[in-house]
Amino acid sequence: MKIRTSVGLILSFLAAAGSARAQRDQDEQTVRKVMSDFVDDVNHHDSVAFGKLLAAEAEFGVITGEDLKGRSEVEKYHAMIWATSDNFKDSPLTWTPLNVRFLDPNVAVAHVSAERFYSDTKDKRTMLVTLVLAKEGGRWFVTAIQNTWVSGRLLSSGN
Per-residue b/e over 124-148, b at no fewer than 16 CB within 10 Å? Predict the structure, then answer.
């Protein structure tokens, strides 16, 4: 009887561990999809779709050092620069996810290597982007993002 109970406990533990791993794998795929949608929305200059990926209280540290607070401010800032700056026309952003790490089942940190090629001068800017994502109501949202300049053309605020 003790052996049967022990085997049952071990099997239950293994099933739970497998289920947790499957959920984490699914969450990682979802986080990576949010990251992919993020860069697609940036390249389409779609501040509304871009904003839907952000938590209401999201913070965005832009490459020029400005600290944007809240989805609305982030959307407005990006809508303004996409509408007024020639630097983003025909200058796609590409990024390569480097890693996704879960701090707990509902919080992930991701790092991305990003590049932007400028069509007017053929200059290239490289960045390291850090994102914090949180799961709220079953959906993953970007709650914080820091865009850090690494090399290349550094633009002034609003460019």
Answer: ebebebebbbbbeeeebbbbbbbbe
**Distances in whole angstroms, Cα of residue 64 to Cα of each of 36, 48, 56:** 23, 22, 22
Mention every residue, 6+ apart, whose C-beta is less than 8 A from residue 13. none
Higher pLDDT pick, 117 / 16: 117
Which H or E run contains 23? Answer: helix 2-43
Structural domains of the chain sorted by starting position, each given as residue range(s) with its CATH number in brackets: 2-152 (3.10.450.50)
CA distance 47 to 91: 17
Distance CA 34, CA 99 (A): 14
pLDDT tens track for 62-94:
988 899 999 999 999 999 988 887 777 778 889
Give the CB-side neighbour count of residue 32, counting CA atoms within 13 A.
Answer: 12
148: nearest Cα among 132, 117, 120, 125: 125
